[in-house]
Amino acid sequence: MRRMGRVAGIVGVLVGVISMSAAPSQAAGSNVLLGSFNGSNTMQAWQGKNDAVDLIYIGWSDSVASVQSQLLTAWNTHRSVPVVSWYLLNSANGNALIASGSQDGHLLPYVTMFKQFLAGPDGTYGNADDRRIYLRPDWEANGTWYGFSPAYGDPGANAYQVNVSTFKAMWQHLHSLFSAAGMGSPDLMWMFSVSSHDAYYKNSSHIAEDIYPGDSVVDWIGLDGHNKGTPSADGWETPDQLFDDMVGRMAAIAPSKPIGISEVSSTTNGSTVSAKAAWITSYFTWLRGAVGQAIRMTVWFNQDKTEDGVFRDFAVFGGANGDSTYATFNAYSEYASAVSTDAWLTASDTSNPRLISDPAFLGTG
Predict the structure, then answer these.
(1) Is the entire prediction scored with pTM above 0.85?
(2) CA 26, CA 12: separation in Å to the nearest integer?
């Protein structure tokens, strides 16, 4: 989802053609990490299960202390593993600057702070009380709504290729800073998150594949998909229309990597509360289907937003709409019903000092 207030440019027309690419082979019934953005302990009580992961957003100019505070809130208050969306320099030139190492002085204090967080309460990294993080820098770079995206501004074919190279180099250099500090599996996972549809761009029909940074610097694939209803470029989309094509494409380019739905939501726009409720049910059904059974994480984007002047009621708890209430909050009972009753949706384990098991964190079980 676009980080509002930091976007220059508007969303291009998205491509919604569904391919017949095969999903990665996974056994039906494998566990799926449950998570949300803008969740709360009240939401977790309503849904009857703790979130295993907590999606947060941080920016280039956010202070180290403020980022650390968000991480500790996710871990200590929500009892969830942070999925950190890190918004870096918002331009192709910014990607080149990071790749060159000229911004290391800005980045290294964050690297140090992340390692301190991962070290856990005893402050010693590499033992049983270490914490965990998923890190997803510059998400949805296959779109055109962020300046760091290689297709932003409709560049010519040659400029696009340069932008692709600098995006990959940026990612690889950032990864190297954490590796040099000794951080990696099984405490830190790098998630390459793309929009479930590439933006329309005349010089490439496969931006997501173009910008993939490489298996050596990626641990997970993340997909962001939102049923925005109308008015939007794609109109009302079912879960399979949102995700099937990109699941197949990412499985083809990175077959060894687990795939998570790093943002998902639906609105009522152009439809009704009952239609959104039915969409929620269909999404959890999709997660057990032929394509969706490959998914190892699901994160609901639980915040209503106004984008390009259009209000979209994405939230399932505490938003503008719902088909029920919990205390004083509007809520969608279909979401809570699925979360509370489906044992394959994995909660955090508060008796585990690391909150989730190694296989669940790594996406292997």
Answers:
(1) yes
(2) 34
156: number of Cβ within 10 Å: 10
Cβ–Cβ < 8 Å for 118, 188: yes
Exposure b/e, 101-135, CB count within 10 A at least 16 = b:
eebeeebeebbebbbebbbbeeeebeeeebbbbbb
Paired tokens of 276: 């959104």
pLDDT in tens, 237-265: 999 999 999 999 999 999 999 999 999 99
- CA-wise closest residue to 220 among 271, 258, 182, 184: 258
Q: Which of 309, 307, 304 is nearest to 276 (CA)?
A: 304
| Cβ-based neighbours of 194, under 8 Å, separated by 6 or more | 139, 140, 141, 142, 208, 211, 221, 222, 223, 224, 246, 250
- For residue 95, give the nearest of 15, 151, 135 by alpha carbon: 151
What CATH superfamily is the domain 32-362?
A: Glycosidases (3.20.20.80)
